[in-house]
Write a structure and sequence with these properties.
- The chain is α/β, with parallel strands linked by helices.
- The protein is built from 13 helices and 17 strands.
- Strand 13, helix 11 and strand 14 form a beta-alpha-beta unit.
- It starts with a strand and ends with a helix.
Length: 361
Amino acid sequence: MLHMCADEVCRPCELTRKVQVGDVTVGGGSPVSVQSMCTTRTSDAASTLAQIEQLANAGCEIIRVAVPNADALEGFSRICVESSLPVVADIHFDHLLAIEAARRGAAALRVNPGNIGSMDKVDAVIDAAGEAGIPIRIGVNAGSLDPGVAERSELSLPQKLVASCESFVHHFEERGFCDIVLSAKAHSVPVTIATYRMLSRQLPAYPLHVGVTEAGTLRQGTVKNCVAVGTLLGEGIGDTMRLSLTADPVEEVDVAWELLAALGLRRMRPELVSCPTCGRTQVDLIGMAEQVERRLRDVRAPISVAVMGCVVNGPGEARDADIGIACGKGKGVIFVGGEPLRSVAEDELVDELFREIAQRF
């Protein structure tokens, strides 16, 4: 059941608490933030900081780094000081690493209480986060559930994931700690969707970090994440996201922004509108569209740019685009707001398009 905000139906994400991760606000109707995770060794602070800068330039807003052992702590300290993005410490198994990461400048901790050990150890992590004034993301995965829930055969996997979250959240609340973000990830798209829908109903106060874990390489992982996360965000479920891909993490950020733009939630870069080609097309439209797409990566204006294969219908079909080209035989038309601007030779079309973009946007 959705609550009412003023005269409109609230989206679930508008009802969550606001949690501060460095200078990024998560939840409470704040824009869905984009996260990624470094693939470098945290002990190599210089390489990690260089990758963080690449990710920041791509639009990443929160970065997570692994802290697998004590050897990583020195590098982690430097990363926290020099990073342009809020740094979340990713901790598994060793609660002492989480405590030390909180002391050394983490903007947040990501822990799975199910693999930290006894609840006494979890309590020590909660206390350390409280003293540092930073939030904790309770990250539950299908492979590491609350031991008391994992063996309950009457529950489905989504129910187990949500029950694990509920158990941990209630424990944190009893300790007086509510600065929480939740995630409950699986590699299955249907399980992911069912789990987060249930979480948003049963724990509506807490911001949700959405994504499909172990989603696969660039093509498969993009499809799985966009189906699952796109479905959830379209329903107003999700406050921050990481689209896990077995690829350069910059790809995760690029796909995340494409998804947010496609849903009409956020846009920081151009949208390419291009037709699929047909028998009327008399130019190398695929090559032209790919060239435009590459060059648009250097444009930061949130505009829509069309590349159409037909002079007659192109401007009309892409009338909502801010600017575009429609191709004929050996030439094409540059149009703005659906209105033809001028005719240009085929081999000059793309260059002329970008001259117009530079002048107008």
